[in-house]
Design goal:
This protein is α+β, with helices and mostly antiparallel strands. It folds into two domains: 1-269 and 277-289, no CATH class; 307-393, Serine Threonine Protein Phosphatase 5, Tetratricopeptide repeat (Alpha Horseshoe), CATH 1.25.40.10. Helix content is 56%, strand content 9%. The chain is built from 18 helices and eight strands. It has helices at 27-31, 53-57, 61-71, 77-89, 106-112, 117-130, 186-190, 200-217, 221-234, 239-251, 255-268, 273-285, 289-303, 307-319, 323-336, 341-353, 357-370, 374-393, and strands at 97-98, 114-115, 133-140, 145-149, 152-156, 159-165, 179-182, 195-198. The strands form three sheets. A four-stranded antiparallel sheet has the order 7-6-3-8. Strands 1-2 form a two-stranded parallel ribbon. Strand 4 (145-149) and strand 5 form a beta hairpin. The chain is globular. The two termini are 34 Å apart. The relative contact order is 0.13.
Length: 398
């Protein structure tokens, strides 16, 4: 589940919706937020129909029947959990494919055939709850990881489910129920990252943030404001929500409002690097280099060992047609972690676009050797075959 979460962080223009947990904030900081809303700037935001918590998590009779007949048929808890996962990915009943940008409710996910990490987690939570399992959401504290969406770099997060067997209250027995973890991302499940149980309201805020982020990318600012405001109401402690509101205000040319939102987000989470990045951008815009440099030094200290940070810089350089800088930063990312196949793939794209066919071929071959996912290997093999074809005919680049 590639962070379904998906939050907004844009190195140069916006910020990302992330799935990270925040430190406990004071009651005053959480509730004294009326000055951070600017409804008059988005007069049509009330026309947006926002999904309720019930809309997002509820299931229908067909889904209840699936739980009854396919999942609860076994008395073994581990078998029940395995059947739940199998129904989602292997059987014809649901048989979902992962798609990064599909932010759907539990019922929509069931019928869609595609879903992202957050949507999968929401549906699995709803089905597991119907199966009388004790289910909790977990936030996974993975390194900062960005993906591009049009003109924006989006910071992604990750969550999964912690599932336990409920104690049988009809028997005079005391026992510790078994606990299993449901994670839809095999890479995450094989790595150790710090985890923290989060409340359902945080998932609700993440869902709204994802919807708002997409609206922001689509330049529908009334819709973005509606969803970000809903997220802030669902979970006022979620720092990323206020950061996203700041991005919206900034893109709406209300810089002073953006600064208020960013500073509030930092009060909630002083380690929110995304918000700090965007605040530094505003200081640069205001010709306040000392304030900007102070933040930028802190950011560099915390990001210098994160390969994804250099991959982000490389992506930005390539987006701005600076091939040399893109290659330099992708190589830095690879030096920090030689086992991430995406770095080689994107570096190969840079070589290809700059006409360096031999290097493009060798680099995509390296991506293939590092990658472990069959679907991705098929995609990479297609790219490799095309590079070989271009090499063979010395065809002009398109």
């Amino acid at each position: 589940m590639k962070k379904f979460v998906i939050l907004i962080l844009v190195l140069l223009t916006s910020q990302l919706l992330s799935c990270k947990s925040t430190e406990t904030a004071s009651t005053e900081v959480i509730h004294n937020v009326s000055h951070l809303y600017f409804d008059d700037l988005y007069p049509y935001y009330k026309d947006i129909l926002i999904e309720s918590e019930s809309d997002i998590f509820s299931i229908n009779d067909e889904m209840r029947s699936l739980v009854k007949n396919k999942i609860k048929g076994s008395n073994n808890f581990k078998e029940q959990v395995n059947k739940l996962v199998d129904e989602i990915f292997l059987n014809d009943n649901i048989s979902l494919d992962y798609v990064h940008g599909a932010d759907l409710t539990a019922r929509q996910t069931y019928y869609s055939g595609t879903a992202n990490c957050l949507s999968l987690t929401i549906m699995a939570y709803a089905l597991a709850t119907e199966a009388n399992m004790d289910v909790k959401f977990q936030n996974i504290n993975i390194p900062e990881y960005w993906v591009r969406n049009k003109n924006y770099n989006m910071l992604t997060g990750h969550v999964n489910l912690l599932v336990s067997q409920k104690a049988d209250r009809d028997r005079n027995l005391l026992f510790t129920p078994g606990t299993l973890q449901i994670d839809f991302d095999p890479f995450i499940s094989k790595k150790y990252f710090p985890k923290k149980v989060i409340k359902k309201r945080r998932i609700l805020a993440m869902f709204y943030n994802n919807k708002g982020a997409q609206a922001l990318v689509d330049v529908d600012y009334n819709k973005a404001y509606a969803y970000f405001k809903a997220a802030s109401k669902a979970d006022p402690t979620h720092s990323d929500t206020w950061g996203n509101l700041g991005v919206l205000y900034r893109l709406s040319n209300h810089v002073s409002n953006a600064k208020l939102a960013y500073k509030h987000a930092i009060k909630l989470d002083k380690h929110n690097l995304t918000v700090m990045t965007n605040l530094a951008i505003i200081y640069r815009m205001e010709d306040k280099p000392e304030e900007a440099e102070k933040i930028e030094k802190q950011l560099l200290t915390q990001r210098m060992n994160n390969p994804y940070y250099y991959a982000l810089l490389a992506d930005e350089a390539f987006y701005n047609h600076n091939v040399e800088l893109a290659i330099k930063n992708y190589k830095k990312a690879i030096k920090l972690n030689k086992h991430i196949h995406e770095f080689y793939f994107h570096l190969a794209k840079v070589y290809f676009q700059s006409g360096q066919m031999s290097l493009a071929r060798k680099t995509i071959e390296k991506a293939i050797s590092v990658n472990k996912a069959p679907d991705t290997e098929n995609r990479y093999m297609a790219k490799l075959n095309y590079i070989k074809y271009v090499e063979s005919i010395d065809a002009p680049l398109k």
